[in-house]
Amino acid sequence: MAERSRDASGAGIASGLESRLRRYRDLRLTEEELATLLLMPVLLFLGVVSFYPIVDTVWASLQDGYIIGTSAEFVGPENYEALFDDGRFWNALGVSFIYTFVSVPIELGIGLGLALLLNRKFHGKYLAQAAILFPWALPTVINAEIWSWLFHGQFGVINDMLVRVGLLETAYPILAKPDIALAAMISVTIWKTSSFMALILLAGLTGIPEHLYEAARMDGASNWRQLRDITLPLLKPTILVALIFRTLPAIQAFGLPYGLTNGGPAEATTTIVLFTHSITFNNLEFGVGSASATAITVIGLALSLFYVATLYEPEVR
Amino acid sequence: MGELELRNLTKVFGGGGGDESGDDDGDGIVAVSDLSIEMADGEFLVLVGPSGCGKSTTLRCIAGLEHTTDGRISLDGRDITDLKPKERDMAMVFQNYALYPHMTVRKNIGYGLSITTDLSSSEVDDRVEEIAELLEIPELLDKKPKELSGGQQQRVALGRAIVREPEVFLMDEPLSNLDAKLRTQMRTEIQQLQADLGTSTVYVTHDQTEAMTMGDRIAILDGGELQQVGTPLECYHEPANAFVAGFIGSPSMNFLPVEFTGDELRHKAFSYDLSADLQEHLRNAPRELTLGIRPEHIEIAEDGARNVVHAPIEVIEPMGELSYLHLTIGGTTYTASIDGDRHHQVGEAVDVLFPEAKIHLFARDGGEAVKNSRDAAAPATDESATVATD
User: Fold this and answer.
1) What is the DSSP secondary-structure string of chain A?
2) Which one of B89, B111, B113 would you mutate to disrupt binding with A, by most A Cβ within 10 Å of its Cβ?
3) CATH of range B253-389; options 1.10.10.60, 3.40.50.300, 3.40.50.2300, 2.40.50.140
4) Which of A99, A124, B110, B164 is the most buried (most CB within 10 A)?
């Protein structure tokens, strides 16, 4: 009796599964339709946390409102005109561009060098791989605090060392000098994120089959040739990802200038996001702040598209 | 010229390396041990053996992709042991072709020429097109490797090796990624190409059929040690030891443990009377022997014949022209290859003969051959061979 009921329930489960499968089959979805259906939850999530804020920011940038939700009045491009007339915006944009396009290529170079070293066989390789991530693992604000003390004019270790080795006669307030504060900030971000670059590039390097290098050696390629003709072309997709991953955060840099110099001295390290933050939350000019935020989004998108257009090669590998 | 010589080549992976004698010092894995082979100019030498026998390592040492632990490699009398791959004037075809995925076929073939010679790009192009014509792939020149079939990629890999006109071609299982039909076709093409170009070639394979059909000579390796070098037929008819005998030939040779008593070979299921000539030949042979007989040399005995082994059929594998009978003798299964037109049933017992001229005998201890099917001392006919079941 028990046997029979077990059989019956087994048959029930099987037939239940079958009917459910039949129902899915009866939907008669094409692969594209099924893919869209499966992507819907994540698209919905992105819509709520990403697309809606972007659209809302663009909308806010077309309104004249000191605080969102009060006295909102459609003003068209007025906020953009005010933004583009503001010299501080162009200064901040310039700082962000210098910060980004000086630091990212240097990070790429150092990251590639580190990745090439870490890709070689040596004792303690895995320890080195873990150790190299240390600067990247540090939270940006703590990093900024550490370096602001290292660079400190009176108590900073860097000043002390430079004086001791005779490169400086007296301590130099590095972060207080407009002409070198940005360079100091760039060197901090290079120190922090080169290891991240190395990690991404290392993943790409390990994916390049060893036999290609052997074939190149048989073909007579020197180490330099192998790097130029095999490694770099095959690393292009990874470099693309790494560049996008580093350029966008660099254009959007906020934590480091905020923690290290708070944009000073004389706005020499005020990045575009720091400027946007300041105009929005210090001056409470939400309309102009939204216009500035929209400009950052457009710049980020344009840079990403530029990278993809110049580096993307679907047929590689 | 492409006279290649390996002298006492030893390669030890890991540990501190091999010592002077090439013996394992206990610190590493000996991949190749004390290997010496000489190759004539234009010769096609096949290195063959099971996985892990050291054949690919040997090839990579010749190429310069691995440092040798001990021994010397010379090409036309010039010591090349410590030279870089590019200084050796050799070209290699890899098992997985190793084509540069981001380069077109044209660039893949011409890459070596363009970086190692003073040829202008148009001269390189001319050479590439010439080679593409030779390999019948001119229409593929502007495609990338991923657009090509396995066979086409294989041709490109060959083209890349040929275009540089090296002294030696090194080929590491170049056909193993192709399907059976294409493999047979490419086998012939590589042989023809090599014969036309007259370039010395070292070809590595684990496939004994490739070794037999392609090589001028074959070198059989096992456990990093050279077992035998010879022409394919020498290795087939006169294997140096039981390993070579079992490795060369398909299906493999049957091995039956026997005891040599002076005038007969005694197996637990039969005894085998020896001719006077063979008795004389085996005068100093050890008592414990292994009788080897190839499946194709086992004959079905006619009715009333004396020299028979009675063996039930376990399985029949009809191949068309031939049939393989799996026979049980003394509790062990052996294979016989017979005319495909003969009809037998599973379970039926057949009387088979092991012609004395065709049998091989190996010392059970060490495996070296004491009698081969082509030995001069062995009788030319099998009239005196007697096989009687117990």
Assistant:
1) -HHHHHHHHHHHHHHHHHHHHHHHHHH---HHHHHHHHHHHHHHHHIIIIIHHHHHHHHHHTB--SSTTSS--B-TTHHHHHHHH-HHHHHHHHHHHHHHHHHHHHHHHHHHHHHHHHTS--TTHHHHHHHTTHHHHS-HHHHHHHHHHHT-TTT-HHHHHHHHTTS-SS---GGG-HHHHHHHHHHHHHHHHHHHHHHHHHHHHHTS-HHHHHHHHHHT--HHHHIIIIIHHHHHHHHHHHHHHHHHHHHT--HHHHHHTTT-STTTT--HHHHHHIIIIIS--HHHHHHHHHHHHHHHHHHHHHHHHHH--TT--
2) B111
3) 2.40.50.140
4) B110
